Amino acid sequence: MSVSATGRPSLVIVGAGPRGTGVLERIAANAPELYGDTELDVHLVDPYPPGGGRIWRQTQSPLLWMNSEAQDVTMFTDETVDMAGPVRPGPTLHEWAAVDGRSFNDRRLLGSYLTWVYERTVAALPPGVRVHRHARRALRVDGPRQGRQRVWLEGRPRPLLADLVVLTLGHLDAEPDDEQRQLAAYAREHGLVHLPPDFTADSDLTALAPGEPVLVRGFGLAFVDLMVLLTEGRGGRYADDGRGEPAYVPSGREPVLYVGSRRGVPYHSKIGYDWEGERPPLPRFLGPQEVDALLARPDGVDFRRDVWPLVEKELGFAHYHRLFTAHPERTGMAWADFEARYAAAGGAAEVAALVAAAVPDPADRLDTAALDRPLDGVAYRSYAELQEELRAYIRDDLTRRHNPLRSQDQAVFLALLSVYGQLVRLGDIGPWWHGFFSHLASGPPGPRLRQMLALSRAGVLRFLGAGMTVEAAGGVFRARSASVPRSSVAARALVEARLPHPTAERTRDALLRGLYADGAAVTAEGLLAVDPADGRVLDRSGLPHPRRFALGPHTDARGSGAFTRPRTGGPAFRQNDATARAALAFLGALSCRKAA
């Protein structure tokens, strides 16, 4: 009989951060229906405190902000979530903390909220469910498919015995790839500094010397954290420049950051106004029926060929719906006529012709390629010219993203969320979509971009441009870009400002590596393959493991990585609910067999 050593059924959740807490909340919500008064041991395994976990722990710099407004963060379900379990409402972050809903708070406040959610969840569990915390790392899982599993913990000679295991591992570290190993070896040989991809809050930045040039590859959110820690984090401050903009006052301890990336620009600013009026009726061109048809394709799905045209049409529909309904004076056709012709358009060329006829101002048209790669094909004569142009680009982006007259941008954001919720069902669709989504929808708050401009004006931050490459030669690192093709910048320090990509083969997580070695299936991108219905781990023949589940960014059912916004359907909530219900049904049947 598969029972724990106590005689009660046992569930082990590896990872007690937001995802693990979310699964536990769904267990508490569904247990009255599916499990009744039966006893259950729940073991939470995580070296970091439950609730916030590693990323949202409260022991980090108060200078590091959340990347979502307080009103857009919730850990609680509502009626918009398509799930079988009951809704258990609760406060958003801004309601719980009594802060401005439009504020971007520091991560420690979010960590406090997540701790409270965890404690409330534990208190809501039925009396027979006991939670046991293990502040250790899980090293491996083994055991027969039809028998209890063994979860081995660091520093513990005997394993936890589990009837079911749920892996909510969160973001993981990775071993360096070939390029990173070569760069690290070159740095050691020549006495240079090389910081590989990492979570910036965990990086040791002390080797980056004041006043010295530092090459930074990566212009996303990891760079924003790096920028903050190497400026304000070293004693710099911002003052008013007399025109309502920040001016940076250096401490003298900052290095000089030379930043570039594939795009060469920062992510687009967060939207800085509230939504008013009618929302676009989504999904329209990429909903459940279209995903069903894609999944039924006998030859498989190619993202660019099969999915992207539907995504682009969905984004365009939301964009033009908002333009025609909220700003009709800037259009040359009735919405009903445009919508009918847009729906009937057979391809990109036909859509472009329709838009050109109906939308006079090019600034009102949706150009996804230009949004994604604004510097493509543009070359500058010098780095000085690039600095001026990129500052103008950032100022223009800030102005547009804070102007409600351009509210079609926010409609596109809503469409991006809708699309992401649909694409979860397709599994691993490759990295391009996630990068595109993050560039448009997961950019920094406006104040961070204003600080970026201030640092640029102060000479602490300098832009390298798009298509950045790094060469290790001549005893230094040397950066070039397609934006300034005739110039280069040399430095003795290189920082890879991006998160690691922990494939199953290269992850530093011993448990995930062990699953892969034991036959768990992975996708082409190295993600753990799971059953989209309930998150059960698949083997290489496609068979789901009856006693192992996995949720989160290390799986092909990953979401956007952001917290769920209230009243947006919450794919992560749907996944958590499905996994919790499957686990409770299994454990309930097990208890019945034992009682019989």
From TrEMBL:
<feature type="domain" description="FAD-dependent urate hydroxylase HpyO/Asp monooxygenase CreE-like FAD/NAD(P)-binding">
    <location>
        <begin position="12"/>
        <end position="171"/>
    </location>
</feature>
<dbReference type="InterPro" id="IPR052189">
    <property type="entry name" value="L-asp_N-monooxygenase_NS-form"/>
</dbReference>
<feature type="region of interest" description="Disordered">
    <location>
        <begin position="544"/>
        <end position="572"/>
    </location>
</feature>
<dbReference type="Pfam" id="PF13454">
    <property type="entry name" value="NAD_binding_9"/>
</dbReference>
<dbReference type="InterPro" id="IPR038732">
    <property type="entry name" value="HpyO/CreE_NAD-binding"/>
</dbReference>
<protein>
    <submittedName>
        <fullName>Adenylate cyclase</fullName>
    </submittedName>
</protein>
<dbReference type="InterPro" id="IPR036188">
    <property type="entry name" value="FAD/NAD-bd_sf"/>
</dbReference>
